[in-house]
Amino acid sequence: MTALLRDRRGLVAGSLAVAAALTLAGCGSSDPAPAADSSGSSAKTRTVDTANGKVDVPAEPKRVVVLDSGELDSAITLGVRPVGATHSASEDAFPSYLPASETKGITPVGEIANANLESVAALKPDLILTSKVRDGDRYEQLSKIAPTVMTEATGSAWKENFQVHAEALGKQAEAKEVLATYDAQVAKVTEALGGKEKAAATDVNFVRFVEGADIRIYGKQNYIGSILADIGTGRPAITDKAKDGFSYDVSPEKIDLADADVIFTSTYGDPGKAGTTKTMNGGLWKGLKAAKNDRIFKVDDRLWIAGIGYTAAGQILEEFETSMTK
Fold first, then answer.
1. Given the DSSP bridges, would you call strands 127-131 and 114-115 parallel, antiparallel or unpaired?
2. Which pTM value belongs to this model?
3. How would you write the pLDDT of the chain (326 residues) with one tens digit per residue?
């Protein structure tokens, strides 16, 4: 159980598939499905500003489906257990950093960016949360199943997305508590590093090995980059060369470009196929300053990269502080 989650405990695809999904949802019109209470009458609604314009959502949604890891984190963080959620393409289970007690009973509805519309509709949701980068091309189909709230993107916009999710879920008061807890934890970690000046004087890199792709040296415009910015750590000059601020991709033969005072690293996929094992056993890696000083830390990819929310951030901050103060 992460610190953030503990603190909040008291607060609380062919056309046939689409047609079948709409039939299961019981709404075949082009308008978003109206929210209904247990008696079948239309429930009160609120209007939320989304990436697709204004969307009317139930005042108190009861059956929420989330289609990305950030949306899942937001819902759990705010005390809402979705009835359905997507999962990573590399795993069938929901992220292990989320307590099993919080994800128990959530029905899988396919992979992220490839949700099964029939499965979504079968759950009879009254609200769907996702983003345009994941499901923008399915917005019309999804909105026929239930009011669908989309943010523009994911990653570095996670804090803004959280506010949209909180508004859609009617959990703005809880969201304020979440932000206050996060800010306090960030301040604690910065102090543990010796204060703002010492934190800024320590260059930290994040290196991700990806099966089927080059090695990624993460820049500043992404989830983990924003957390490091909040803490106030230094970042190596190589991060300024990241494409669109996201990552600077290199081959194993150029891994020396990743050097920093401290390196956190994760792997997406099989370590052998991603080149993790070979690279980290090579001379260039072992010659890194961080390696020589024993300041390289392996972390969980699904938490540090794919968590994209405040519950994940709380645990990342805990692990970061533990590693940095060894």
1. unpaired
2. 0.86
3. 444 444 444 433 333 333 334 344 444 333 444 444 433 334 699 999 999 999 999 999 999 999 999 999 999 999 999 999 999 887 778 999 998 999 999 999 999 999 999 999 999 999 999 999 999 999 999 999 999 999 999 999 999 999 999 999 999 999 999 999 999 999 999 999 999 999 999 999 999 999 999 999 999 999 999 999 999 999 999 999 999 999 999 999 999 999 999 999 999 999 999 999 999 999 999 999 999 999 999 999 999 999 999 999 999 999 999 999 98
As a whole number of angstroms, the distance between CA 233 and CA 198 comes to 8
- In angstroms, the first-to-last Cα distance of the chain is 22
Contact 76, 165 (CB under 8 A): no
Neighbours of 88 (CB within 10 A): 17
Q: What are the E-state strand segments in 67-113?
A: 84-87, 107-111
- How many angstroms separate the CA atoms of 146 and 115, rounded? 14
308: left (phi > 0), else alpha (psi -120 to 50), else beta?
left
d(CA 197, CA 191): 10
Structure-derived torsion over alpha carbons of residues 324, 304, 9, 176, reported in degrees to the nearest 10: 90
Q: How far, in Å, are 39, 83, 245 from residue 304 at the CA level?
A: 43, 25, 17
